[in-house]
Amino acid sequence: MVTRTVNEPTEQVAPPPGSPVRGLLAFVRNTWRGLVTMRTALMLLFLLAVGAMPGALLPQFPLNPPLAQQYIDDHGWWGQLLNRAQFFDVYGSVWFAAIYVLLFVSLVGCLLPRTVEYFRQATAKPVITPRNLARMPHHTASTVAAEPLAALDAAKRQLRGWRVVERAEPDGARSISAERGYLRETGNLIFHFAMLGLIVAFAIGKMYGYSGQSIVLAEGNQQSQWCNSGVLAYDSFTPGLRVDGTDLAPFCIRVNNFSSTFLSTAQADSFDAGLSYQDDPRNDPNTWQSYDLKVNSPLNIDGDKVYLAGNGYAPVFTVTYPNGQQRTNVIQWKPDDAVTYLSEGATKFDPPGITDPTELHKKQIAVTGLFAPTAVITNGVMTSSFPAPNNPGVAAQIYEGNLGSDSDEQSIFDIDQNMVDNGSLKLVAQANLSLGQQVTLPDGTKVRFDAVQRWVSLMITHDPTADYVLVFAVLLLLGLVTSLVIKRRRIWVRVTPAGDDDPAGRTVIDVGGLARTDQAGYGEEFTRLSARILDAVAGADRSTAGKDA
Fold first, then answer.
1. Measured in whole angstroms, how far is the alpha carbon of residue 537 from the centre of its chain?
2. Does one domain contain both 307 and 317?
3. Which of 2, 59, 174, 453 minimizes the number of CB atoms within 10 Å of its CB?
4. Mean pLDDT highest for which of 84-98, 403-417, 510-524?
């Protein structure tokens, strides 16, 4: 006797009520349901806007590290708290990225079911005619002598542009179900998908875009040429997350001249930089194209945009040493006063012919102080009364000694104060100089103020998603206008024979209407449309009466 064992399938047993697994599943399910609602998406969008505000109100490390650090130092524990909360690098912070990702997930989880439901509704027939049209928010009725089919055809001709379905009803009546305004939901979906596209485009732009600034002298010579050769070519550079600076678009710019005009109130009127540029110097290094760069007219080169971001003055100094050797140097000074262009800076010189670092650090010279485009001296203090170079002057302080040029944190705009404090760098002369004037140092060295040059600050930005952002922004506006203007509405027409009690054999016409959204205006539209339908049915009535006669 053979015994056969049958292995029956094991029934899956659900976790018992109150178990941790069941509670965890319920928590995950409820969290997901709450996340993918439109209300949550709107709340996250609001949080994203609020979270971006510190990025506009507070200095940011990627854009201006010294200013951000200065803010932290000036505000003590409050600045330290904001720094720990990443408020000085908002767009790279963990919490901003979390809001961004949650908003993306919420929009995707919300839009996909809505899209499926929209296509299902768009291909479905209008709903059946309600049994009692008199209960609809909008209703009108009439009795005509036309045949039911003739009356129904006349009503149907007035509903061109509507999605219409004709149905026969059990009691012998016939009805029309018509619906219009499907583009409202289309616009709604376009709006939200465009918003999703903007989020994705901004994210990709942050990954593969970059921006930087470089200061160039506006003299049309070799010092006025700048090439996009790498990160080191920039004075400040903010790369995207996927940008390492090794694959930048190769182009060169030469600033030939710069002009500025000012009103009598010292307010700026216009800025204009004459450029020459090469798309790719490797192809034809001798071919240059011209461009007139203005504040709101950037130069587009190979996907990069070049903006005129700022300007200022660069005083030219010549140092004549006791042995007759000369050194001439020019470097930009930064404007401290945005109205009068009163500027400060430091022009530094290394003595010629000295290679020994110890001796070199004893004879370095720095010309610091204030530069005034239109100098006015009151009680020995120089200020500027106008931003144009009408009377250039320098309130010069000349230091000699060790400039601390070996330090990694050396600034081009000032000297190392630590060197002054420890006596390695000493103040040896100070004077107010006009063009052509000079001051003689104790060892016979002469420092002369020779000329003034202009410099411009160029901002170079690269955003591979700029065109997509524009397209999505336009679609977002179109979708929003469409969803606000178009109304989803329904109308029903029922024709019912009056019955045996009516010896004339007339037909009862019922017209009912309903707006899918609570918007004003459908009452007027329904009144006009129902009047047209009843007039058309009345015309069919007269036509039928003529045939009977």
1. 57
2. no
3. 2
4. 84-98
Rg (CA), the chain: 39
Q: Is 212 exposed, middle or buried (CB count within 10 Å of its CB: 0-12, 13-18, 19+)?
A: buried
Prediction pTM value = 0.70
Residue 264's domain spans which residues? 207-311+460-468
Shared-domain flag, residues 430 and 512: no
Tell whether 383 and 340 lie within a shared domain.
yes
Q: pLDDT per residue over 226-274, tens digit each? A: 999 888 899 888 888 888 888 888 899 999 999 999 999 989 889 999 9
Report pLDDT for 5.
Answer: 46
Q: Which of 361, 512, 467 is nearest to 423 (CA)?
A: 361
Number of domains in the chain: 4
Give which of 138, 149, 179 is closest to 495, Cα–Cα: 149
CB atoms within 10 A of CB 408: 4
Sequence-separated (6 or more) residues with CB below 8 Å from residue 255: 216, 217, 218, 219, 220, 224, 226, 273, 274, 275, 456, 458
In this prediction, what percent of the chain has a pLDDT beyond 70?
91
Cβ atoms of 323 and 446 closer than 8 Å: no
b (16+ CB within 10 A) / e for 427-465: ebbebbbebeebbebeeebebbbeebbbbbbbbbbbbeb
